[in-house]
Design a protein that fits this description.
It is a multi-pass membrane protein. With 456 residues, this protein is mainly alpha-helical. The protein is built from 20 helices and 4 strands. Strand 1 and strand 2 form a beta hairpin. Helix 1 crosses helix 3, helix 15 crosses helix 17 and helix 15 crosses helix 18.
Amino acid sequence: MSSQLAFQIVEALGGASNVISIENCMTRLRVCVKDAGLVKRDELSKIKEVLRVVGSDTEPQIVLGPGVADTIGGEIKKMEGIKYSEIKTEAVMKKKSATGIFSFFAQVFTPLIPVFAGAGLIFGVMKVLTLVFNMTGMPLFDPASSSFMFAVNVLASTFFTYLNIAVAMSAARVMGGNPYLGLIAGGIIINLGALAGTEMGVFGLIFTNGRGGTLAALAAGALIAVVEREIKKRVPDALKIHLPSLLSIIIVGLVTIYALQPVCGLVTDGITAAFLWLMDKAGFMAYAIIAGFFLPLVMTGMHQGLSPVHTTFIENLGYTPLYACCSMAGGGQVGASLALYLKYKHNKGLQRAVVGGLPAGILGIGEPLIFGVTLPLGRAFITACLGGACGGAVLGLFPGQGAVTMNVSGILGTLVNTKPMAYLVAYAVSILAGFVITYAVGVKDTALALFEDEEF
């Protein structure tokens, strides 16, 4: 069944020869095609298992839902004629639009999403085990002295310790370069050796390990791929083994140490300070606005543009209040969907859609409910956003809360928040508000008619 679906999708994309690259996140396939004119978006949208087709003409995104996207992505990569590894996405950086930048961020961070989620949840497991220790006194779970807990902490923290290396490698891969050169670029950022702590001699700056964070890693990884490619074009074949890597490391390494790190460091400091200032001055209203506008970002795929901001917060504060705030949007949508389920019991198509998307929604994956339930109903999408805004406002009443990782949200966000009860209360409010507002407002009969004969 999955192979048939993969075949249908590839055919609608204009055939295997039209696919330049393909990657998947938790819920959608992200594709780059050679000729946008060959893509049959209407046919893609009519495929039974496809929830929605979004994205640009040359970079369509096919929303399939959690798990399905990964399975179908794997099936497509096995198909004859698919050359998905031959990534030519340097064109992304040539675009001057914000969409191109967001696409770049998405392609860099998409392969890291499962690792963020898995490693981040281990922190949640540690919280649970610490709670067990506080209740029972079991020495095995003592966070201060247990070697077992120390070992679990190693499992949880290793990915985040080397996050800049992972980001730089992914950026180099996206730009069509050698990911292991990206490894060197990211490694330079986190380990300056004997330079660390010494003065740069410019503006009073000091060489600092990790300065610039993931933003510097993104830039260094992309730059080293571009430099390597340009050098390869200009050297004789006899020197292509040694010279491109040698010169790339020297050029980009020095640029990273003396330019990218200090500049990106100032930028990340500014981003962190700006958001903290906004959240401090505007208080709960800032959280409400952020949570209320997050679902439209997910709908367009632009939420990936926030990934460097989240990681900047994690690196600077140890947690990201912004990610926890965005999670409230999912709660509003869960509440809205529950209201629709109870209010329109006669509409079996709508009920099937809600039941199909609700488990993923509760676990923090919003696309199935966005594209399968609330967005087609129009008004319900707005009421879901309002529910999320209410939850965000409540969350803003608890300074110091935030997620210690990305891509763990929904009810599971409780496990990775610095203030679990604050998060849980706010999430419950977002569900309740989404439910009450949606139930009171309802949706148009003409919109409901879309689900009357729908088969799911």
